[in-house]
């Protein structure tokens, strides 16, 4: 059984199998060329609006003899005048990101809004935070699995807690409870979690390496043990090696599977409106990383909490 799971995980993350197809690359390059052609026009219009706003402000200040109040207000006006540039940049991103990921079924893009699954994610307490900030979000269907990839920053007060991406996968069969896999907590974190997860049981995964890096807890330990014997643990292991920026955290709640993946850069990072997009440098890296996440999503979507050892029941598994 173990050998089969290892082969499944290895196949899912085979770099050749995950390479973009020729048709995908052709479509991406066409989208990049269209973006670069439109970029100059959008940039010129945005800058004309910006300088027009600043010109009107300068006239107003001169008329009012440029008092101290107007000087102070100028900082706010400068930020306001940048709005056309920011809006033009976002308008271009609204167009090109869905085109880049057009090989994904039912692909959709949004920016800045809290996604519908945020409440389920918050309930798992994969990190200790009191505010969040969602950036770019891509949703779609990959080989029958519904997923979402969201840029996410978490803070506790003014202290950054997490920066990276949140992968959300819809499970075809609901997990009967909740399961988390987090970085082994420090003493202060353990004290706080006594009050938040006091009724959750620590569940060994059976992997010394994963249990050394993670602490798994669940309110249904028998089902959690079954899940942790499957391909999901292999996916977690792979992501931990692929994204060495920090510990990848896992959460299951009913039909939602979450993987919180730290990164050192914005996942959907593209150059500013003043710079052309280079397909190799800026886009293909992003596609390759997304394909790895989609392969993970496919594995996560296939997990079965009823896959117990022969002769074992949920009661005996505990």
Concise structural overview:
With 318 residues, the protein is an alpha+beta fold.
Description:
With 318 residues, the chain is an alpha+beta fold. It folds into two domains: 2-19 and 106-317, no CATH class; 21-102. 49% of the residues lie in helices and 24% in strands. A hairpin with a 2-residue loop joins strand 2 and strand 3 (145-156). Helix 9 runs antiparallel to helix 10 (279-301). The longest helix has 42 residues, at 22-63. The chain crosses the membrane at residues 51-68.
SSE inventory with pairings:
Elements (H helix, E strand, L loop, with lengths): L1 H11 L9 H42 L4 H14 L1 H18 L4 E7 L6 H7 L6 E12 L2 E12 L2 E25 L3 H10 L4 E2 L5 H6 E5 L2 H8 L2 H12 L6 E14 L16 H23 L12 H4 L1
Antiparallel strand pairs: 1-2, 2-3, 3-4, 4-6, 4-7, 5-6
Helix pairs in contact: 1-9, 2-3, 2-4, 9-10
> Which structural class do you get from the secondary structure elements?
alpha+beta
Query: Can you tell me the number of structural domains?
Result: 2
The dominant shape is globular
Helical content stands at 40-55%
What is the count of DSSP helices, taking H or I runs of 4+ residues?
A: 11
Q: How would you state the average pLDDT, rounded?
A: 77
Salient structural properties:
318 residues; alpha+beta; 2 domains; 11 helices; 24% strand; disordered N terminus; disordered C terminus
């Amino acid at each position: 059984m173990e050998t089969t799971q290892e082969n499944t995980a290895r196949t899912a993350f085979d770099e050749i199998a995950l390479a973009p197809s020729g048709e995908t690359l052709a479509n991406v390059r066409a989208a990049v060329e269209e973006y670069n052609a439109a970029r100059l026009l959008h940039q010129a219009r945005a800058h004309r609006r910006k300088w027009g706003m600043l010109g009107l402000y300068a006239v107003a200040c001169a008329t009012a003899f440029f008092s101290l109040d107007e000087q102070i207000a100028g900082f706010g006006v400068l930020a306001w005048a940048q709005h056309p540039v920011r809006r033009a940049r976002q308008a271009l991103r609204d167009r090109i990101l869905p085109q880049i990921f057009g090989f994904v079924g039912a692909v959709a893009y949004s920016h800045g809004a809290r996604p519908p699954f945020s409440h389920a994610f918050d309930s798992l307490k994969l990190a200790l935070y009191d505010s969040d900030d969602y950036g770019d979000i891509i949703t779609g269907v990959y080989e029958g699995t519904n997923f979402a990839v969201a840029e996410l920053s978490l803070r506790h007060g003014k202290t950054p807690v997490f920066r990276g991406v949140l992968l959300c996968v819809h499970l075809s069969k609901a997990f009967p409870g909740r399961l988390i896999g987090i970085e082994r907590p420090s003493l202060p974190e353990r004290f706080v979690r006594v009050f938040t997860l006091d009724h959750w049981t620590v569940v060994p995964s059976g992997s010394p390496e994963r249990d050394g890096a993670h602490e798994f807890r669940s309110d249904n330990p028998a089902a959690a043990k079954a899940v942790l014997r499957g391909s999901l643990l292999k996916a977690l292991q792979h992501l931990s090696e692929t994204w060495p920026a920090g510990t990848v955290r896992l959460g299951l709640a009913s039909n939602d599977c979450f993987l919180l993946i730290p990164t050192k850069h914005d996942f959907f990072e593209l150059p500013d409106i003043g710079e052309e997009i280079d397909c190799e440098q800026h886009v293909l890296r992003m596609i390759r990383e997304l394909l790895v996440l989609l392969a993970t999503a496919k594995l996560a979507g296939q997990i079965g909490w009823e896959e117990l050892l022969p002769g074992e029941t949920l009661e005996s598994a505990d």
